[in-house]
Amino acid sequence: MSVTAPNFYRRPLPDSCVPFASEAGKKYFTESLMEGNANIYFKLAAQFITQDEPAYCGPSSLVMCLNALEVDPGRVWKSPWRFYHESMLDCCVPLEAIKRSGLTIYQMRCLANCNRLNCELVTADEGDESLSTFRADVMRSVRSDTTIIVAGYNRRVLGQTGAGHFSPLGAYHSGSDSVLVLDVARFKYPPHWVPLRTLHEAMATEDPSTQQNRGHLVLSLRSETRPLVVFGLRTTIACNDAHFAESVVSWREFLREAPMAEDADEWVVVCRRFLQCFSGHAMTCKGIEACCRNGTKATETDEMAECSLKICREIRQTHVAQLTMSSAVAALMLAWPYQTDFSKRSTRLHDYSLEWLKSVSEDTRNEIAVLQEQISTMIECTKPVPKF
Fold first, then answer.
1. Percent of the chain scored above 90 by pLDDT?
2. Residue 332 domain flag
3. Which among 137, 183, 241, 363 is annotated as catalytic?
4. Are 209 and 268 in the same domain?
5. What is the pLDDT of residues 261-320, one digit of tens each?
6. Peptidase C83 domain location, by residue (predicted)?
7. Annotated catalytic, 381?
8. One domain for residues 170 and 295
9. Which residue range is the domain that position 147 belongs to?
10. Do 169 and 73 share a domain, yes or no?
């Protein structure tokens, strides 16, 4: 005897929400346009998507924003096109884990930072100052075409089914004091208007997985960068990866120790310890392995292959790469966010990396800068959070 699982065709919006396509919704939108409070809508509407998986509201919202802000992923989606898809957002949390549990707002920030976005995370509380901050950020976004707000909120506060959810915001209507929620779960709810105050209340709720309040992300393109093309952190690292956090703590403790008297001995010890801590976390991007091993071009475009070859060559020539016998590990070590006021050993490594960066190409400097951003973000997001 077969058992048919329950299935649904959409959900009716509660009374607190005004459907975008309703007469009232159209009126709100027309008036918001006239007020200049829907500029960002057009960028977002051009890239509006339906989430690929039931728990993909975070990745889908972020993909929508990345494509709306015209970020080049530097990776082919379907040949020959480079275009963001949820499957590409694998730099902070394994995709299988996202399918099971979704994302927290801190993991969303990690993904945004790793994909060349400036990302400000603003947690919400019940105070008037928090509401005023949210309102100001919304107004700044809807009047621009370069800044996007993604709200993280509890659906139940809006009278909707479900719990935690992420949605980009596309417009603001002053007459009703409402924001346009571009819900990526379009199989469930259509785009709709929600009172700004009510949405803020839904954001000022605790996420059980983090035991912290939800909030909103302010996203904009980090200009004058290009995506990582050669090196990175392994995609199996999750934002609550205890092993990575323990490796960071171990490395910090080592940096606090007094350096060896002889430089040659010091370099051997430093590289050995970094290799022990992070060899399992260093990654060479797909298709570039051959380039890093023997200097042959990877199967990319000619321009990308030349860029990859140059970066590999310049990192492979460093003293660090020669001692670690790994360009990927050397790249992580050179990109590590050393602080000069942390310890003598940390200062030395900081100065070495800084001096080396002066001698390499712009492509390699970009690679190290983006990799450093990824490392810094993962350090901040892992639990327990190591503090420098």
1. 64
2. yes
3. 183
4. no
5. 999 999 999 999 999 999 888 877 644 443 444 443 444 456 667 888 888 999 999 999
6. 3-224
7. no
8. no
9. 18-221
10. yes
Among 172, 196, 221, residue at a domain's last position: 221
| Same domain for 318 and 212 | no
Residue range 188-217: mean pLDDT, rounded: 96
Q: Which of 57, 110, 119, 277 is catalytic?
A: 57
Quick one: 248 and 176 in the same domain? no
Establish whether 165 is a catalytic residue: yes
235 and 145 part of one domain:
no
Q: Is 173 a catalytic residue?
A: no
Q: Where in the chain does DSSP place strands (E)?
A: 18-19, 76-78, 81-82, 117-123, 147-154, 164-173, 178-181, 192-195, 206-207, 212-213, 215-221, 231-233, 282-284
Residue 61 and residue 25 share a domain:
yes
Which of the residues 91, 165, 207, 292 is marked catalytic? 165
This prediction's pTM? 0.78
One-letter-per-residue 3-state SS of 68-128: HCCCCCCCEEECCEECCCHHHCCCCCCHHHHHHHCCCHHHHHHHHHHCCEEEEEEECCCCH
Chain-wide mean pLDDT for the chain? 88
Query: Would the pLDDT of 215 be above 70?
Result: yes
Is 4 part of a structural domain of the chain? no
Please indicate, yes or no, whether residues 183 and 246 belong to a single structural domain of this protein. no
Q: Could you tell me which residue, 322 or 6, shows the higher pLDDT?
A: 322
